[in-house]
Amino acid sequence: MREGRWPHTPARTALFALLGGAAMALAACSSGSNGVASGASAPAHAPRALCQQLDGILSDGPDPGADPVGYALSQILPLRGVHSADASVMTALRQLVAADQALVRSNGDDHAATTAIGHADAALDRACPGVAP
After folding, report:
1. What burial class does residue 96 get, using C-beta atoms within 10 Å of its C-beta: 0-12 exposed, 13-18 middle, 19+ buried?
2. 24 vs 19, 29, 35, 128, CA distance in Å?
3. Mapping DSSP to helix (H, G, I), strand (E, B) and coil, where does residue 6 land?
4. CA distance 113 to 118
5. Widest pairwise Cα distance in the chain
6. HSE-up of residue 93 (Cα within 13 Å, Cβ side)
7. Is 35 left (phi over 0), alpha (psi -120 to 50) or beta?
8. How large is the C-alpha radius of gyration of the chain?
9. Do residues 99 and 109 touch, judged by C-beta distance below 8 A?
10. Which long-range contacts (CB under 8 A, 24 or more apart) does 91-99 make?
């Protein structure tokens, strides 16, 4: 099973939305008058259409928990086909594709690839909350 990956479910999405809302509320309570914590900026979100495209790609394929190598393999070509002006998303996608390729080449034994997949997923989740499985 890929480290840090859960099946994409409505309950998971709702949980992340709830946690994100709670975190934003806490940040607003501890910040100055503008509602953003001192020294921090509001999280940047990717365009909705891009997030929907990524959600469609990342929710397709074998179950990442049951077949992490098959899941990684099924994502490589579709993720390569994504193009956007959003630099943070494109950087995360390049990192995810490279890590997926390393995981496939090692037949699931590359722990650094598993870690890199987790980092890329986290970056994608920051840009498109709930998109990474």
Report:
1. buried
2. 9, 9, 9, 16
3. coil
4. 9
5. 52
6. 27
7. left
8. 16
9. no
10. 91/123, 92/120, 92/123, 92/124, 92/127, 93/120, 93/124, 95/119, 95/120, 95/123, 96/120, 96/121, 96/124, 99/72
Amino acid at 107: N
User: Among 45, 6, 2, which residue's Cα sits nearest to residue 132?
Assistant: 6
pLDDT in tens, the chain (133 residues): 444 555 555 555 544 454 444 444 434 433 333 333 333 334 558 889 999 999 999 998 888 888 999 999 999 999 999 999 999 999 999 999 999 999 999 999 999 999 999 999 999 999 999 988 7
Task: Tell me how long the chain is.
Answer: 133
Domain residue ranges of the chain, discontinuous segments joined by +: 10-127
The token duo for 71 is 């899941």
Q: What pTM was estimated for this model as a whole?
A: 0.66
